[in-house]
Amino acid sequence: MKIPQFHIDKIINTALREDLTYIDTATDLLIPESQVTTGFFLAKDSGILAGIDVACRVFELIDTIESGENITVKKYFKDGDKIKNGDKLAEVTAKTGTLLKAERTALNLLCHMSGIASRTRLFADSVSGTNARIADTRKTLPGLRVLQKYAVTCGGGFNHRFNLSDSAMLKNNHIDACGGIAAAVKVLRAKISHTANIEVEVRDLKELQEAMAVGIKLIMLDNMSVTEMKKAVKLARKHPDLFPDIILEASGNVTLENVREIAETGVDIISVGGLTHSVQAFDVAFRVGC
């Protein structure tokens, strides 16, 4: 997955404007403008790296703003690599003021993204050997979705839709507002682009049958118990000649403790909002002049 640089730079610049309004009251008054130092990122935990290029880009943008001069960056690991406590991840040589002004924004992004990647890898490893893929959701922090979803892929997960325009997902409220699955799908198919997919969220086996009856091939099993999921998978696979290529997605209340059991029901996708909306930051330090 390759994120266009202008998207990354916009996120970084927004973060920098939030953190640096006019001057850095400590750095600008304390550090000689000509002083040059090397700093480095140090892992203080073990997991999966994500966001090292983004973090290093913060220093480049600050340096361009401050002086227009180049900086030197050396990266010892790449996104998706396994890292352990004590690993030096990258080092940056630049004006000391550049390092001090950029370090917190760089660490905020790096720690958050690596936390997501590390968490995702735990889920992906938990379903290894099954047919299931781990996917994210739209439960992301405003403004950071593209970086969060990228971090999921670094951890071995897959992306669900990026936004409401990617595909049509008929959730419970859509269905209830339109008078049922069949009615909602009929109206939508008459208007939707031929390039867009339709996914329907179902709450029970009755709604699953309704979705299958109108030819929906992407179906989310919403907050079903493992027992209900097993029945849903059995029903969906019962007549492969009549209902070929159905993709079943499990969603709701997925944890590391139950994800393996969910995967073993035979579902194809397991979406986990917790990969992005409440992940713990990965611990990384930035040392200057050491």
Using brief descriptors, characterize the structure shown.
18% strand, six-stranded parallel beta sheet, 11 helices, four-stranded antiparallel beta sheet, alpha/beta, 290 residues, single chain, 12 strands
Q: Would you count the extended β strands for me?
A: 12
For the residues shown, what is the average pLDDT?
Answer: 94
Overall outline: elongated
Biggest sheet overview: 6 strands, parallel
Q: Which radius of gyration do the C-alpha atoms yield? A: 23 Å
How far the N terminus sits from the C terminus, by CA atoms, comes to 34 Å
In percent terms, what proportion of residues is strand? 15-25%
Low-pLDDT residue spans: none
Read across the widest sheet, the strand sequence of neighbours is 6-11-10-9-8-7
Structural class: alpha/beta
SSE topology:
Blueprint: H1 5-19, H2 27-30, E1 36-43, E2 47-48, H3 52-66, E3 72-75, E4 82-83, E5 88-95, H4 96-126, E6 133-135, H5 145-154, E7 168-170, H6 172-178, H7 181-189, E8 198-202, H8 205-213, E9 218-222, H9 226-236, E10 247-251, H10 259-263, E11 269-271, H11 274-277, E12 284-288
Parallel strand pairs: 6-11, 7-8, 8-9, 9-10, 10-11
Antiparallel strand pairs: 1-5, 1-12, 2-4, 3-5
